[in-house]
Design a protein that fits this description.
Blueprint (H helix, E strand, L loop, with lengths): L1 H5 L8 E13 L5 H10 L9 E6 L2 H12 L21 E8 L10 E11 L2 H5 L8 H10 L4 E7 L6 H15 L9 E8 L4 H4 L5 H8 L1 H12 L3 E7 L5 E2 L5 E2 L1 E7 L2 E6 L12 H8 L10
Parallel strand pairs: 1-4, 1-5, 5-6, 6-7
Antiparallel strand pairs: 2-3, 3-4, 8-9, 10-11
């Protein structure tokens, strides 16, 4: 299926280098997890200078994401929250292939790099409610589902800095649960991803994600850095926007805000014709390869 789709797009003289990753996306309600995944699967209005060639869905759940983008986001509507599944086997498992263009940044300049990911998007209730449980079967089931993951994306609405301590407590419990469970001897990678960075108070520092996280979420930052210093795993920081901005000199969020409060910002896409997300692939590349691609940080 993938080969037949890719055949007309890729020069057969090029070699392919494949990296794969099993991801879990974790974050509070309305952190933008499913919107992020739908924007990634849709990959709208491609910037031809971007290192990303295309994104392909590889299963029915991946196709579902594209339909969500077309039938909900592009119509200026809000994606419904992901409901907490009582059986973790019911959680959608999105399978996508991200194809990166031939680049001198790779070990061979005639190599096309493919990122094949399987990604589960946990409901916000897992992060806000289930992780607070001291001992329940549902918590154990979800944590057991986390263990095989090569990488975890902790997604946090960049405007929810007043919940820093609350989030840090949930992250603490997750880190304790994951302790000592390396993947085949390799350290687990955790990408902290700040979402909704099209907003003016975040956009200006989008290229300084570590600075932004430390400034806005100092408690979370210290927890993750300590976890990494203890040799428990590897951490990196990223900024993303599922909607992006419009304008060339004076940037404006390509979104219409419908709510803003302590729990974050809720917005919908403003102009689907100028819909160009930012920063979606960079954390996935790092989780799959263990290396930071600074070209991807620009788009």
């Amino acid at each position: 299926m993938l080969k037949s789709i890719l055949k007309p797009r890729i020069n057969h003289n090029l070699k392919e280098e494949n990296h794969s990753g099993v991801l879990r996306v974790i974050g509070d309600r309305a952190a933008g997890k499913t919107t992020y995944m739908a924007a990634l699967a849709r990959w709208p209005n491609v910037d031809f200078s971007s290192p990303v060639e295309l994104v392909i869905s590889a299963n029915k759940d991946g196709e579902y994401l594209i339909k969500q983008a077309q039938n909900v986001i592009e119509k200026g509507l809000q994606i419904e929250p992901t409901r907490l599944a009582n059986d973790v086997l019911e959680v959608k498992d999105y399978s996508l292939r991200i194809v990166l263009k031939k680049s001198d940044n790779f070990s061979l300049s005639n190599t096309v790099l493919n990122l094949d990911i399987n990604c589960k998007d946990y409901s916000g209730e897992f992060f806000s409610d289930v992780l607070q449980e001291t001992d329940c079967q549902l918590l154990r089931d979800y944590l057991n589902d986390c263990f095989p993951a090569t990488g975890i994306m902790l997604m946090i609405d960049g405007t929810t800095h007043r919940k820093d301590l609350e989030y840090a407590r949930g992250i603490d419990k997750l880190l304790v649960a994951l302790a000592g469970r390396d993947i085949l001897g390799q350290k687990r990678r955790i990408a902290l991803v700040l979402t909704k960075c099209e907003l003016a108070d975040l956009w200006g520092n989008r290229h300084r994600p570590k600075f932004l996280v430390e400034a806005r979420f100092p408690i979370i930052f210290k927890r993750l850095e300590s976890w990494q210093d203890l040799g428990m795993g590897n951490v990196e920081y990223f900024t993303t926007s599922a909607f992006g901005v419009t304008g060339n000199k004076y940037f404006k969020p390509n979104s219409q805000q419908i709510y803003r409060g302590r729990g974050g910002v809720a917005s919908v896409l403003e102009d689907s014709k100028r819909w160009r997300p930012f920063g979606l692939v960079s954390p996935i590349y790092w989780i799959c390869t263990g290396e930071r691609n600074f070209e991807l940080d620009k788009y």
